[in-house]
Amino acid sequence: MGEAIVVTSGKGGVGKTTTTANIGTALALLGKKVCLIDTDIGLRNLDVVMGLENRIIFDLVDVVQERVKTKQALVPDKRFDCLQLLPAAQTSDKSEVTPEAMKKIVDELKQEFDYIIIDCPAGIEQGFKNAVAGADKAVVVTNPEKSSVRDADRIIGLLEQEDIEPPKLIVNRIRHHMVQNGDMLDVDEIVSVLSIDLLGVVADDDEVIKASNSGEPVALHPNTKSSLAYRNIARRILGESVPLLSFDEEKGFFTKVKKFFGIRS
Amino acid sequence: MIANQQLITIKGTRDGLILKIDDQCAYEDVLGELKEKLSLNALLEEDRLISVKIQLGNRYVTKEQKEKLKEVVRDNQNLVVGKIESNVLTKEEASEWKKHAEVKPLVRVVRSGQVINVEGDLLLIGDVNPGGKVMATGNIFVMGSLRGIAHAGVDGDFRAVIAASYMQPSQLRIADAISRAPDHETEGVYMECGFLDEEADKILIDRLQDIIKKRPDISSFERRMLNG
């Protein structure tokens, strides 16, 4: 029996889809059977980031409306056998899916896969409710800016009302030199406001954008910082205790966060 | 049977009259005697208004009965009813009182978009994040960071206070008064308390330790009962 993890943020454009693609890829690299579900119906992106757009035949709405079996709609990844994608529909909208239907599909997939990673749409309406319905765990993605942290806070509040484990935090697109100058919120500050456990920190990296455009998640490239960050996040999801990467030669700042991680199992 | 028994004793004090009403007889008898007594006392032909305090002892009166009593007093002369005192409360009223006098502890983080509404005092163990809101009819004590909105004395108790371990609120509200954070970025302050200053007619923030000077009665049960 696998577990379902929803990746959410409230605010749009903070990197939910990229995070989903990369966590999924990194887990697959570690040999886990992974299924990605895109619940952003009407504005699907996950297939593009994964480079699987051309292979889609059926989608989530087809499954919900029982035109096809769940397995038939799954798109296998071109690189890993153990990685599959259940794409969103592009022609319908979010009201086509209900939380109950989502839960049924996720429960079915949990029999087969080790991890189900659910990409949540932005916002707190129907799409969010659908995405959260089947999840056992949640990962909240935020950027180091105030508006994004506010929305993350709101989302965490909503997740607390769901039957779900306390969410974990990924701080995405940190720019180290801006944090140093005090122009950007630092990780400690974000964690202290949101008061949830930190799962990982990903630096702002041009490679991520390049990789997304070429349909190859950055986690596949072994040499970039962001790739390492995503792989570490995947290992932490598996329960390993991995220290946070230090971005530059700088130490003082991250030893604090490392210490924070030291306490976690 | 009751003819020769005094049901109502009238006492004059500097502040006005005190009507002490026997609590064993029927309510109708009281009304009757009250009318009679007050018409007899028509000698109080003074210009100024006289305040009357009615002491009911162990008698329970409903709202309507209370109104009727007031009416009788007001009708007869230049008397005004200041207060009606009774030793008896209904369970409902008592639990209402108690609610207003209690400190309600709450262990959680109040996040953006969440609103907490409490009767009586609120003791929050956790933070109020920006966009979150806590309201109480009494005082608000936050053991944690107050970064959102806090509204104390929602029902109009302007003597309510808001205290926090770390104070960086976007707004403080006490009764009808509102104060907000300045437009420029500011650091918060530790262990401070906001209260409504009557002279300045605005909300001031001071050291937590100094609040005893402004609100010496903050912890007393009676204050809350009377305000409740």
TrEMBL record, chain A:
Family matches, as Pfam families: ParA (PF10609)
UniProt keyword annotation of Protein biosynthesis present: no
One GO CC annotation: cytoplasmic side of plasma membrane
Binding-site residues for ATP, renumbered to this chain: 11-18
GO terms, biological process: division septum assembly; negative regulation of cell division
GO molecular function: ATP binding; ATP hydrolysis activity
Keyword line: ATP-binding, Cell cycle, Cell division, Nucleotide-binding, Septation
Keyword Nucleotide-binding: yes
Task performed by this protein: ATPase required for the correct placement of the division site. Cell division inhibitors MinC and MinD act in concert to form an inhibitor capable of blocking formation of the polar Z ring septums. Rapidly oscillates between the poles of the cell to destabilize FtsZ filaments that have formed before they mature into polar Z rings.
UniProt record similarity statement: Belongs to the ParA family. MinD subfamily.
Protein name stated in the entry: Septum site-determining protein MinD
TrEMBL record, chain B:
Stretches assigned to the Septum site-determining protein MinC N-terminal domain: 8-84
Record's keyword terms, sorted: Cell cycle, Cell division, Septation
Residue intervals of the Septum formation inhibitor MinC C-terminal domain: 108-205
Key word Cell cycle present: yes
UniProt-listed InterPro entries: CAP/MinC_C, MinC, MinC_C_sf, MinC_N_1, Septum_form_inhib_MinC_C
Record Pfam families: MinC_C, MinC_N_1
GO BP annotation list: cell morphogenesis; division septum assembly; regulation of cell septum assembly
Job description of the protein: Cell division inhibitor that blocks the formation of polar Z ring septums. Rapidly oscillates between the poles of the cell to destabilize FtsZ filaments that have formed before they mature into polar Z rings. Prevents FtsZ polymerization.
NCBIfam families: minC
PANTHER family hit by this protein: SEPTUM SITE-DETERMINING PROTEIN MINC
Similarity section: Belongs to the MinC family.
HAMAP family: MinC (MF_00267)
Self-association state and partner proteins as the record states: Interacts with MinD and FtsZ.
Protein name per its UniProtKB record: Probable septum site-determining protein MinC
